[in-house]
């Protein structure tokens, strides 16, 4: 890895790409500290305290790169764009026009990307309003103007223009981050949106190191052993993520010979790489978002100690879908694990259908030895994919519940969650792979030029 970085810096073109990517990350960090209009600075500490106890807000803060705790114009990060991308991927098997665009190559993909950007705007407005209203009610449940996040009430009906200005600034911040991601795709190294998320998570590492140093400086033997255990679990998790992310099953493919005039085409052998974790981190996001939602809604209506059937029902959902709720920890963790496994299978099948591997093989004269082309090939590929996806699904389920296991084993709760770790390692590996491919391409160019 270090050798590849040194070689990349020595090549002028790659050096420009690497420096451009770093420059975009610096711009992103500046944007992450620009507050929205009308913010009340005195309430930011209350916001950070609320984030520490609100799991949905913690998840959104990850995708915002820590900008949510400052309530900057980038407080939503690129999460609306990720949501739009997922929606477009789920709609492609259902809408024939989108399927045709997917098959049109680079031009079709550019149109799909344009549709994703357009869909991001209304989704960003909805998320900006819902997210801001939820945080406002969390830190200011009584409506006290002195405890509010803003200097004037956040109310679209009675205080339209200041509230609409806040929403527009947050949507503009998200679209600016999406534009930065596109610039990284074109002129930098790595997948732009993922690199933006990566930069936000990594920016929190110094604070995590300081937190670990403060814990170790207490001198308590049990605490120090817990910190060592946390580091060991973290290193083992990183190794596991790399092995699962890079793991694949290679199915041999043979292409039939075709004679056209005096030339013979085909006849070569290749393989189909089926990844162990084709779905990536998306199932984990799905599962966490869904299982958190009932508890968040219930928290709006639940008042501890108050009588009434409605309050009792809200209390049941609040405690059940809350890992720290009374009697809800085991149920929450079990449901999170099962949902992650289920969504991994679901999203893997969606991606497999979009790739249309059996039809592509048949059109190009390819076949898997011992398997008839067409329907039999599709059945065989699905059977193999179901087997290898089991390992990826169980691993993602383990990653989802790993923070609770780590906390129970070490007794510590540090700021770097397993979801953030999965994103950081996955993006780092993918970026290094792209860098190595760029180096190989330039080596070939140098060889041909000689």
From TrEMBL:
Keyword Nucleus part of the UniProt annotation: no
Top-level taxon of the source organism: Bacteria
A Pfam cross-reference name: SecY
Matches recorded under PANTHER family: SECY/SEC61-ALPHA FAMILY MEMBER
Transmembrane feature ranges: 18-36, 112-130, 160-180, 192-215, 221-244, 281-302, 330-352, 384-405, 411-432
SUPFAM superfamilies found in the cross-reference section: Preprotein translocase SecY subunit (SSF103491)
Physiological role: The central subunit of the protein translocation channel SecYEG. Consists of two halves formed by TMs 1-5 and 6-10. These two domains form a lateral gate at the front which open onto the bilayer between TMs 2 and 7, and are clamped together by SecE at the back. The channel is closed by both a pore ring composed of hydrophobic SecY resides and a short helix (helix 2A) on the extracellular side of the membrane which forms a plug. The plug probably moves laterally to allow the channel to open. The ring and the pore may move independently.
Keyword Metal-binding attached: no
Localization, UniProt: Cell membrane; Membrane
Sequence similarity: Belongs to the SecY/SEC61-alpha family.
InterPro entries found in the cross-reference section: SecY, SecY/SEC61-alpha, SecY_CS, SecY_dom_sf
Name assigned to this protein: Protein translocase subunit SecY
Organism: Candidatus Chloroploca mongolica
Gene name as annotated: secY
């Amino acid at each position: 890895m270090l050798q590849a970085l040194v070689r990349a810096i020595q090549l002028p073109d790659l050096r420009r790409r690497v420096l451009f990517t770093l420059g975009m990350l610096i711009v992103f960090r500046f944007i992450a500290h620009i507050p929205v209009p009308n913010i009340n600075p005195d309430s930011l500490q209350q916001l950070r305290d609320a984030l520490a106890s609100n799991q949905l807000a913690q998840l959104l803060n990850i995708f915002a790169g820590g900008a949510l705790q400052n309530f900057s114009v980038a407080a939503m990060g690129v999460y609306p764009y990720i949501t739009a991308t997922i929606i477009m991927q789920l709609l492609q098997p259902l809408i024939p026009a989108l399927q045709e665009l997917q098959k049109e190559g680079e031009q079709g993909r550019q149109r799909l990307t344009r549709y994703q950007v357009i869909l991001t705007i209304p989704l960003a407005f909805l998320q900006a309003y819902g997210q801001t209203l939820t945080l406002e009610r969390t830190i200011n449940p009584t409506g006290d103007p002195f405890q509010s996040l803003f200097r004037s009430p956040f109310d679209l009906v009675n205080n339209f223009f200041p509230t609409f200005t806040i929403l527009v600034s947050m949507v503009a911040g998200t679209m600016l981050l999406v534009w930065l991601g596109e610039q990284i795709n074109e002129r930098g190294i790595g997948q732009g949106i993922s690199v933006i998320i990566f930069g936000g998570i990594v920016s929190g590492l110094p604070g995590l190191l300081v937190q670990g140093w403060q814990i170790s400086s207490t001198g308590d033997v049990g605490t120090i052993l817990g910190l060592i255990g946390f580091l060991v679990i973290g290193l083992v998790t990183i190794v596991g993520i790399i092995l699962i992310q890079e793991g694949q099953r290679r199915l041999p493919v043979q292409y039939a010979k075709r004679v056209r005039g005096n030339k013979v085409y085909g006849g070569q052998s290749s393989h189909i790489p089926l990844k162990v974790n084709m779905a990536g981190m998306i199932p984990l996001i799905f599962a966490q978002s869904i299982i958190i939602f009932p508890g968040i809604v219930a928290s709006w209506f639940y008042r501890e100690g108050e009588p009434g059937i409605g309050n009792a029902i809200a209390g049941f959902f609040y405690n059940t879908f809350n890992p720290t709720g009374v009697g809800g920890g085991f149920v929450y963790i079990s449901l999170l694990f099962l949902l992650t496994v289920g969504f991994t299978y679901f999203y893997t099948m969606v991606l497999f259908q979009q790739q249309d591997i059996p039809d592509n093989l048949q059109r190009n004269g390819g076949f898997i030895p011992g398997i008839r082309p067409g329907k039999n090939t599709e059945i065989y590929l699905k059977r193999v994919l179901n087997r290898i996806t089991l390992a990826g699904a169980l691993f993602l389920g383990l990653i989802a519940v790993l923070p609770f296991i780590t906390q129970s084993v070490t007794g510590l709760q540090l700021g770097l969650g397993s979801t953030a770790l999965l994103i950081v390692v996955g993006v780092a590996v993918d970026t290094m792979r792209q860098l190595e491919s760029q180096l190989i391409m330039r080596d070939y160019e140098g060889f041909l030029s000689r």
